[in-house]
Amino acid sequence: MSIESIVVRRPERLRGTVHVPGDKSISHRAIMHNAIAEGVAHVDGLGPGDDVKSTIRCLRALGVTINETAENACTVHGRGLMGLAEPEDVLDARNSGTTTRLLSGILAAQPFLTILTGDASLRTRPMDRVVEPLRAMGAQAMARCGDDYLPLAIRGGDLHGIDYALPMASAQVKSCLLLAGAAADGTTYLHEPAASRDHTERLLAAQGADIEVDGLRILIRGRRPLRSVDVTVPGDTSTAAFWVVAACIHPDAEIVIPNVGLTVGRTGFLDVLEMMGADVSISNKRVVGGEPVGDITARSSRLKGATIGGSLIPRIIDEAPILALAAALAEGETVIRDAEELHYKESDRICVTAAELSRIGASIEERSDGMVIGGKPHLAGGEGDSHKDHRMAMTLAIAGLVTDSPVTVLEPRSVAISYPGFWNDLARLAGG
Ligand code: S3P
Q: Rounded to two decimals, what is the model's pTM?
């Protein structure tokens, strides 16, 4: 297996059970929230990807003791809301936007200087969205290019609550400000333009924070100590989406994905696939670690096009590339709109999805706020570049399971950001 590229061929059948790794969003939070709590927490089911490792590395550099107790399990020794230690060097979040933005909220309350940087991709992603409100709360923060790009320097201080309307539906910005608000004097009021994932709110509430959620309005009264909470992380919803779509678009498929997180802020792709006529069912619904969880079964389906926009967008923000692939093989046209935020992900996912899926035969027109996809019965295959974006690598790989000729995925190692075992699971399910 070459490491510069991996070739994926269509198997006759696609069947089996796949246990996806622990949810990336919840893993980051389980570690960060417990790092600023009182006591020791045990976290298991942690996502094994590089992004979660970045969070662990940065927090260790900030004086937090995190001991790995087993594979994907650790203990986190809390240091209290304002008890982190000044790092000796610049912190490198590598590819992880969640590490950077959520940690910024925590650092805004620490009375010392931290400089955050990241890899070439992260250094082009917008940070003014956290710099501006954190300054309004009383932190000193500055970044490159008009305070927008990493490196970002934060000297934390005595924060006070603010009343802030988020300009975009972003769980990372919301979470950053809730973590800052937890350590601020007074109350922080946030207003979201549309609902985004709510893992931060759930975990803060479980930790005893004084937080209230009323539709799109959230308030947190600061300076209440947070309790350490043990977390069992469910399977990653966004990762499960790749296997769900794989089953739907393959002509002879049935894939079971047990133990997947199903909080409403993440399940927009299931709603979209239902609109498209997919054969997907959920069983064994339960609550694990304060999060709704279930087992997903997906089967070969006859998909039709759909219109995806408005409040659905934050709920499919990470699944847009794989939904675009489903749409490329559906009957009729699919429109994705109101999705400007896709420009600012690990790659520009409007531009890269349209370009790379077109290279393997899809009919996709790029729009400034999304794309228009003309469905076709078959895709030709060919070469596709992940642009070092984990979700693009997995989208192209899933395409290779159904294209007429194989798909060669360039930069395939990027899957390690969220799913290091992806290529092994793919080979197993495809019977390779
Ligand atoms: C995340 C929020 C989303 C998502 C990202 C993870 C989170 O980003 O795309 O993969 O864990 O809060 P935005 O908040 O920037 O939309």
A: 0.98
